[in-house]
Amino acid sequence: MASNDSAFKQKLQRKAPYILVAAASLLIYETYLLQKSFLALYQIYLNIVQNAGPEGVSAHAYMWFTSETFGEVGLILRFAGALFFVTFAVALLRRKPSLTFLKWGVLLEAIQYLFLIPFITQWVVFSGLAARLTIISFSLQILLITPTMLMLYLRLKRPQVSQTAVLRASAVSAVAFMFAMWIKHFLFNLYALPIDFSSPVLTVGFANSAVTLLVSALILTAVFLPLFRGKSTTFSFRGAGAALIVTGLYFVVYLAIAVVNMGYQSFLFLTELWMISLIIAGAGFLLDGYSK
Fold first, then answer.
1. What is the pTM of this model?
2. Of 61, 122, 213, 225, which residue has the fewest beta carbons closer than 10 angstroms?
3. Residue 111 is part of which domain span?
């Protein structure tokens, strides 16, 4: 970022504790998933070998294991990205901000979504229309997140880049990410979670997945609209904070339902549960007021 952008860096530094809470939550979450994943991948390997027919391992089994292996690589990349995000937040907190850490965190987050492609390929080849909602979900996540984060990475990579250019790319990436999270969790409700409108609990769960993250994405869009239109070089941190709180509330509701419903509980760690910490970050943004 250009040297004359020190004023914005000061504003960002005031948000450092809240950014650190979110980054640390992502790292803790990814650490938990990663330490469980190696054994899970080995169990898949054993399952495939032990259930191989007289003609050996089937093409389906090969593709299944391949996709899970690619998924493991993606998980490692996201874990590494979370380390960079935490390092960036700590440096920001110490008033020694370095966009290098942020740059690499953004790049790894963008790339790791590409490791979902083998899963999509497997479902297209062997499941077809039966897995159409899963295919749509994973495909849209890639299309929304990877290009916008790569665009942000390229902005951050430039030795001299204006504050406005970085903020605009960050805003586009944030909005795209939030719409992707809505798509992921809404479609996940449709193809994986129990739906029963005669049950008040499951009705709340369905409404939560259909509306909450969408509202958050729309709030973010409204907050960043002046940036998108080129009418402003800043945005409302309170508005962004409200969006973060709404995002976190989705996971509060999901977690509450998981306490009483095994269907929700079984898939708890397939959600982006770390995002519950955005309630804290959002509250901090709200208390800190508008950016000037």
1. 0.92
2. 225
3. 3-288
